[in-house]
Amino acid sequence: MKIDFNMSSIILMLRFLRNLKNKQADKKQICDIFNHPDYDFEFRRYGISSKDLLIDYFMKINTITESDIPLLNSERKNMIRNKHKRWLFAYENPEYYEVLYDKIRLFTNADMLEDICTRVKKGLPANTDIDNIRMISTMSIGTSFGYVFDETLHFDIMGFHNGSLDTLSSLIAHETHHLAMWKYVSDFIGSLTLEERYIFSFTGEGLAVKFCNNAKGAISKAIDDNRPVNEGLDSFSMDYLNECFSESLKIFRDTLIDIRAGKMNADDVSNQLKNYWWNLYTEEQNPEEEPLLKHSRIYSFGNDLFGTIYDIYGKETLFDCVRNPLKAVKYFECVIGK
Question: CA nearest 270: which of 259, 254, 281?
Fold first, then answer.
């Protein structure tokens, strides 16, 4: 495996921020940056058709009040506001990211790739090949630290708050696992029933955190005693989510009953996944606040559901359950009891 890695837009953005701070920036400069292929990739991923609001925001980044920060589309309306404090830090401290940029270039070496391959392959069926991957890093316009889109892995350099790259290999391994899994499941995912697709939806993040982040769930065990538990994951988020296990289990079980009874259709399931399983807000928060969680319930419950099957029954049974999701429920219920 090798990585085709591009992070050239970062230097351009840092130059713009320096110019803005020195009152030498102009609109053309930020327009040119947003025409960079890596930012074009980000606009497509976040579903942003017009760059005008963002261009206006960046020209005013050091003077705009939070209440005047523009809302984007209905899906991402608070995205800029939730990132504003980090952009202000970058405006005031561009040298921080210049140092980090150089550290990342040195860090992405052969030893790191070998470590990533080892972790990813442990979480895939035997003899699964890992293709070469395309990777991009930007000073991201969005709030996702790492994601996969259009067969490309992206991570946000602004996610490294303390200048440490301890989490970088876990992040790349996690997203590489997604890429490999998507190719593995492509031959059967289209034939799954609604009930099977619902169960299957917990495999992606659940297995990625299990094998690539050494996640410890409410009942699922960390698999590597030689690595930090929950490596590269936010500790507050994982503790909070693991405490939600009983609630999540009830919702999972009730949903399966409702799907079987015809009380929930595909739209209902999709809405539940979006509003509950992928929700980044704690129970006490309201939608106008910045989400406190860095990971959602689909991470923790997916780890407990499929990770526990691996703990008890091994890899062969695990991937039999991935291909046949109804079996996953039977094995899981045998472990935790009804």
Answer: 259
